[in-house]
Amino acid sequence: MPQAFTPKVVTANALLEGDVVYQTSDDRWTRHLSQAEVITDEANANLRLLMAEGQPDEVVGVYLADVTPGPDGPEPTHFREEFRRTGPSNYAHGKQAEPADV
């Protein structure tokens, strides 16, 4: 029996900087998960994924990531996505040196 579809966001890495990015509902890329489009329909998720994969001049490694609704926008459901959202773990720089997700 197939599993029920769970909410997702389209995520990738920015081609030039390598930063984690998320697709917004107006087809932009943002570095803030709170601004990402939450997709609740499987067919729409697959369409959005295909559209994102068609932007190799902007992003690489495009995929759908599971999220859950939160008070300040989507929240990752897997530790890998939390790790990607917060950045490098070896010392405070980049995302870890900045204020929380806006």
What does this structure look like?
It is a single chain. The protein has 102 residues and is an alpha+beta fold. It has one domain. 20% of the residues lie in helices and 28% in strands. It has two helices and five strands; from the N terminus they run βββαββα. It has a five-stranded antiparallel beta sheet, with helices on both faces. A hairpin with a 5-residue loop joins strand 2 and strand 3. It is globular, with a radius of gyration of 14 Å. It starts with 7 loop residues before the first strand and ends in a 16-residue tail after the last helix. 21% of the residues are buried. The model has no long low-confidence stretch (mean pLDDT 88). InterPro entries: DUF2849. This is DUF2849 domain-containing protein.
